Structure formats: C-alpha cells, structure tokens
Amino acid sequence: MARTKEFDPDAALQSALELFWRRGYEATSMADLVEHLGVGRASIYATFGNKHDLYLKALDRYQQARNPQLLRELSQPGPALPAVRAVVRRFATEAATGERRLSGCFVTNTATELAPHDTDAARRVEHNWDHLETLLHAALVRAEAQSELPAGRDPLALARMLLVLMQGLRVVGKASTDPARVQDAAEQALTLLD
C-alpha cells in the first residue's frame, strides 16, 4: 500500500514559488527548498521532479494566478482605455513601491535569468507575453472601435509597446531607488493613447 503524502503539495508549490520569486533560480538551492518547504528532498523529487521542474511548475502557477486578473481588468464592459491605463499604472506602482518592488515580476525575472539559455523557461515567458499582448491588443481594438483612440493608431503596435514598457518597468523598478523614474515613464507612454 502506498504511503500518504505527509504534506500539502499545493501549499508546498506556493511556498516554492515565493522562494524562487524572492531569490531567483540560481540563488535557490535544493537545501533551501527543503528548509523553506519543510519537506524532505525525496518527497520534493517524488512530487515535483528536480529543482528545474519545480521552478517551471511554480512559474506556471504564477501565470495561472495572474492571467485571470489581467483578463478581468482588460475585458470589462464600457470604455477600454481607462482599463488599459489602470493596468499600466498598476504595473508602475507595483514596480516602484512596496514589497513587490524588490521581488519584481516572476515572469520578468525568469526572462532575464533563465530564458536566454533555457528553452522551457523561454517558452513559458513567451507564452505569458503573448497572452498579455493579446489582452492589451483586444482592449485597444475595442478602444479603436469605440472611437477612444485617435485615428491612425495601430492597436497591435501600441499593445507591443505597452508590453515592453510594462516588462521594463519591472526591471527598472527592481533596481532603482527613484520611484519617479518608473512612474514618469509610464505616464509618458500613456500619452501615446491620447
């Protein structure tokens, strides 16, 4: 008869996500995971695979939690541009202030640390960016259809610009001690929607 797991895999995955998000992949050892999760090494391997597998599962979990929130924010009925502006401003605020500033965005952290040499991580980062770009593009197409955007603006190009801006905000916000740098950049970019 198989033994029952003595820990909650869902809680352990969330705990691993938080540790990887705070410290990064390379700076988190298997010993760190064992200590932080309070789960034996063999149980971690049996449940999640190796450290890399666990990291990818944590990244998937992060995206599954964040993406529905963005979908709700960007697809609400009514004018679309206020929702787009609110999302960009929220990214800027999170990047410039509070406890999230030093952690950054788990996807952005993965893009800078792992994606250049890890195809599995790069594929997940691209998937996340494609999803965010699609949400922004759909909202901007709605804004165009509702005459909220000035004539001649390209919703796809604007969505891509905002995606790159939002990811850049996370990188700069994590390293900069000047919140105005991030806030001013976001506000300047938003003038392109006027």
TrEMBL record:
Coiled coil stretches, renumbered: none
DNA-binding positions: 29-48
UniProt cross-references to PROSITE patterns, sorted A to Z: HTH_TETR_2
InterPro entries, alphabetized: Homeodomain-like_sf (IPR009057), HTH_TetR (IPR001647), Tet_transcr_reg_TetR-rel_C_sf (IPR036271), TetR_C (IPR011075)
Domain named HTH tetR-type: residues: 6-66
Keywords annotated in UniProt: DNA-binding, Transcription, Transcription regulation
Keyword Transcription regulation: yes
Domain of life: Bacteria
Record's protein name: TetR/AcrR family transcriptional regulator
Lineage: Bacteria, Bacillati, Actinomycetota, Actinomycetes, Kitasatosporales
